[in-house]
Structure formats: structure tokens, C-alpha cells
Specification:
Blueprint (H helix, E strand, L loop, with lengths): L2 E6 L16 H17 L3 H4 L2 E7 L33 H7 L7 E6 L19 H7 L4 E7 L1 H14 L3 E10 L3 H14 L2 E2 L1
Parallel strand pairs: 1-2, 1-4, 2-3, 4-5, 5-6
Helix pairs in contact: 1-3, 5-6
The structure holds pyrazine-2-carboxylic acid (VGL) and zinc ion.
The site of pyrazine-2-carboxylic acid has 8 residues, from helix 5.
Length: 197
């Protein structure tokens, strides 16, 4: 098994105080950073995660995904505008990735012109879709963390299962928009075949 870490939408707009702040996001990012620091300190980061992928919600004009009257299920306040400060990664995560060799890091953007909850709807800077990229690097398993459990983490993990990857959800490294939905998402992912760790 060759595992990639998928850090989903660890962006400032999804951090407490951001345009679409999610309670618990900062704590989740800290735990991811601690996990990475520990693996690095013990010299096993590159074996454990030969590839680390960050996804970013990257909206230019996402249609009804943005709304002045959001329902917080299918429509949302303006968030993660491409190129804006709120669309940047939270510095807790960018700092944690600073010492990872650039060839081991992949940055995925998604959602330019429509809602795209799953990282598998995204692509790297040269336009290569995430699944193709992972296959090309020999990745067979993914560990998923980030924001939001009940939306982009959910969609990304379900797509990863469908694409044939072994999937683990790092359940102390995620945060939900709606905690109740977060809990039911974890059950749904378990039933879909993901391992909850
Ligand atoms: C997300 C709501 C809107 C997410 C993205 O990253 O889970 N949620 N856009
Ligand atoms: Zn969005």
C-alpha cells in the first residue's frame, strides 16, 4: 500500500472567523500539523506519506453555490474566491508543509465555475485531475483530513472509495459545518468502506 495524505480545504475562509468559518477547524489543523511534525521528527514522513495533496476550494464564479441568502447546505456565503487571502491555506498547514520536498507535494484547486465538493473534481496547476495524478504516482491508499466533514471531506472520501483507493478518515483531524451531519457522515463513510481512525 502506497498512501497519500489528502488535506481537504484547509483554507482561511473555513477557519473560525473566516467567511465560512467551521468550529473546530483550527484544532483539526493543529492535529494534522502535529502528526506531520511527529512523523518527520521520527524520520518516517516520506515512507508514511510519499505524497501529500492539499485541495483548495477555488471559486471564480460558482453560480448558485454562492448566495446572498445561503441555506448552508447547497448555497453558501461568498467564500474562497480564487486568489483572495481567504482562499489561502491556513498558516498552520502551510508551515507544517514547508519542509516537505516540493516534488512530494501536490496542490489541487477545484470549483472555479461550479460547486465542487470533492477533491476528485479538482486538478493540479497543469490541469491533471486528482485521480490520474494519484494513479500516476503509484498511490493505492489515501488518508483524508480537513474541512468540512459533512461536505468536501465526505465527497472526497466517497470518490476515493469509488475510484478504488483504500480510504482512511483521520477522524480527529476533521471538523463539520453541522456536528450532527458530521456524525452521520462518519457512519456513511464507514458503510461505504472507509476505515475510521
Ligand atoms: C465546502 C461548503 C462550500 C467544504 C466548500 O470545503 O466542505 N463547504 N464549499
Ligand atoms: Zn465552496
Amino acid at each position: 500500500m502506497v498512501t497519500a495524505l489528502l488535506i481537504v480545504d484547509a483554507q482561511l475562509d473555513f477557519t473560525e472567523g473566516g467567511a465560512l468559518g467551521v468550529d473546530g477547524a483550527t484544532a483539526a489543523f493543529r492535529r494534522t500539523a502535529e502528526m506531520l511534525a511527529q512523523a518527520q521528527g521520527e524520520g518516517r514522513l516520506l515512507q508514511e506519506y510519499p505524497l501529500i495533496v492539499t485541495t483548495q476550494d477555488w471559486h471564480v464564479d460558482p453560480g448558485s453555490h454562492w448566495s446572498e441568502h445561503p441555506d448552508y447546505l447547497a448555497s453558501w456565503p461568498v467564500h474562497c474566491r480564487a486568489g483572495s487571502p481567504g482562499a489561502e491555506l491556513n498558516p498552520i498547514i502551510s508551515a507544517a508543509l514547508r519542509t516537505v520536498p516540493p516534488e512530494r507535494l501536490v496542490r489541487i484547486t477545484k470549483g472555479e465555475h461550479e460547486a465542487a465538493y470533492s477533491g476528485f473534481e479538482g486538478h493540479d496547476a497543469s490541469g491533471t485531475p486528482l485521480a490520474e495524478l494519484l494513479h500516476g504516482r503509484g498511490i493505492t491508499a489515501v488518508d483524508v483530513c480537513g474541512i468540512a466533514t459533512d461536505h468536501c471531506v465526505r465527497a472526497t472520501a466517497l470518490d476515493a472509495v469509488s475510484a478504488g483507493f483504500s480510504v482512511r478518515l483521520l477522524s480527529d483531524q476533521v471538523a463539520a459545518v453541522d456536528p450532527g451531519r458530521g456524525q452521520s457522515t462518519i457512519q456513511e463513510l464507514r458503510e461505504a468502506g472507509a476505515l475510521i481512525v
